[in-house]
Design brief:
mainly beta, Beta-galactosidase, Chain A, domain 5, eight-stranded antiparallel beta sheet, seven-stranded antiparallel beta sheet
Length: about 325
């Protein structure tokens, strides 16, 4: 092998194992993540982006597990809820302003804007990579309500794609998270992973099935219920794949409530009690006084097979134990 360049070949052989397996790179108003030499996803946060979102998300096989709309038009996809962009974090009521359904096209009079402030750091590595970034949650007039410090960690893996999300929100002034089902950490799934229903578009075939840590199945048994984790799995382009969201045990109101819909919305929300419990007297709101903070931590696992095959219950125990 390259006999005339033997010293260089030996040097290359020595350096290759040290090459980063998770590569996190700065782009134009975006941060791009590659895992094991393949694209994983991109975090978008430019001035015209009302809330940051990560799109697309890919399995280890390379298959995209998030819906394309509204970033792309893909045959057979639904085009509801234009604010459902890949993976995102936001809430529908902070001091009356929405940081959830806040697309410019929606013309919501109480629209909030999660404004990019700075990238604090990007790290690439052999087993993991990370990004640290700051945003400011501003009302429709640009008045800051919350400061968000976000960290996202991405891990290598032969079969799984694991993302750890860690956001700390600090109130700049008194900030009330209102009781609404519209929140807070969410993914909009690829069409094939939606639960089948009489309203499903014919192609691609909808094959999704939800499972929760409590044994719940389907939207009927999971929406508005508490669980430590929920898994959404199905057949995607001939491959059995699933996505699990794990709630950290130190999160507010753990085990959290789930705003998980059969049409592919997959969301965690600890605040929407009057909707989830169907009780108008319930109050799931939470108020932070100026200077107070609240931390939100979730793990996302994209895996082969269903929840049982992927051992999601055991992986939640590992996550809870700090692994």
């Amino acid at each position: 092998m390259c006999p005339d360049m033997k010293p260089y070949c030996l040097l290359l052989t020595f350096l290759l194992p040290l090459a980063a397996q998770v590569k996190v790179e700065q782009g134009d108003n975006r941060i791009i993540v590659h895992i094991d030499g393949k694209p994983y996803g991109t975090l978008y946060y430019g001035p015209d982006t009302m809330k940051p979102y990560m799109y697309p998300l890919r399995a280890a096989s390379g298959k995209i597990v998030t819906r394309g709309y509204p970033m792309e038009t893909i045959a057979g996809e639904s085009t509801d809820h234009p604010h459902h962009r890949g993976l995102w974090f936001g809430h529908g009521d902070v001091n009356g302003f929405t940081f959830w359904d806040n697309e410019v096209s929606q013309k919501t009079p109480k629209t909030g804007h999660m404004t990019f402030k700075k990238v604090e750091g990007l790290t690439s590595g052999k087993k993991s990579g990370s990004l640290a970034i700051q945003f400011e949650w501003q009302d429709v007039n640009g008045k800051p309500l919350l400061r968000e410090s976000r960290k996202m960690i991405f891990y290598t893996g032969a079969q799984d794609r694991i993302l750890d999300f860690d956001a700390n929100l600090t109130a700049i002034e008194t900030a009330k998270f209102g009781d609404t089902k519209e929140g807070i950490f969410a993914i909009r799934l690829a069409s094939a992973l939606e639960e089948p229903s009489k309203d499903s578009l014919p192609s691609p075939r909808r094959t999704g099935a939800m499972t929760s840590s409590t044994g719940g199945r389907t939207e009927k048994q999971i929406w508005g219920k508490q669980a430590e984790w929920v898994d959404y799995s199905g057949d995607l382009e001939g491959e059995k794949l699933g996505i699990a969201i794990l709630d950290h045990p130190e999160n507010f109101r753990h085990p959290t409530y789930w705003h998980a819909r059969g049409y592919g919305l997959f969301a965690v929300n600890p605040f929407g009690l009057h909707d989830f419990l169907n009780d108008k007297t319930a109050d799931g709101s939470k108020t932070l006084e100026a200077g107070q903070s609240m931390r939100f931590r979730y793990r996302v696992i994209i895996h082969p097979g269903d929840a049982a095959a992927a051992h999601i219950a055991e992986k939640h125990k590992q996550y809870a134990a700090g692994h």
